[in-house]
Specification:
Blueprint: H1 2-11, H2 26-38, E1 48-53, H3 56-64, H4 71-74, E2 77-84, H5 89-103, H6 111-122, H7 126-150, E3 154-158, H8 163-170, E4 177-186
Antiparallel strand pairs: 1-2, 2-4, 3-4
Helix pairs in contact: 2-7, 5-6
Amino acid sequence: MKETVNKALLWRYATKVFDPEKILTKEELHPVLDAMRLAPSAFGLPIWKAVVITDKSLRTKLRAAAWNQPQVTDASHLIVLAVRKHIDEKLVDAYIAQMAKTRNTDIESLTGFGDMMKGFIRSKDAGWIREWAARQTYIALGFALETAALHQIDTCPMEGFDPKQFDEILGLDAQGLESKVIFAIGHRSNEDTSALAAKVRLPDTEIFIGMN
């Protein structure tokens, strides 16, 4: 399994040129989306949502708000990871209710866990909570990128976009959401010379610090 994962990670790269004719099926896309759904998140709270976009006209508008990068329109799908603007006790209560239902247990037995989460949220200011929430989206992004690579599906994570314009175009503000990171997903074009470039990373000795 280790060799399979390492081979997939060596195969993947931030795809610059996608083949617009190669469209992912629902069956191909599902493992990637499911990996995001199952990815770790703080307390397990549903802090983020993913907007999955295929509409070409909509993506043309988004491309203008993303430095005109072709991946936005040429990939099979564009996925926008957005976080909830309001993370409060109501979200905790809804999550506890879902947990009780899923595990077939009484809500009362989960009161301590719910109170702990509420206490954590109350102890932080709004700015800290927003940054904390944003970091959760990158965990989901990482799981998506690796899962896609294992299925030999190409991706390109992107921060080069205007979040406010994206939020306006997608109507995210009205849904209490704000975009944080996006990624294009599909299949590379044969014209993408970046696929042939060797992956450049520092050796283990310059990355990992051992503490004995």
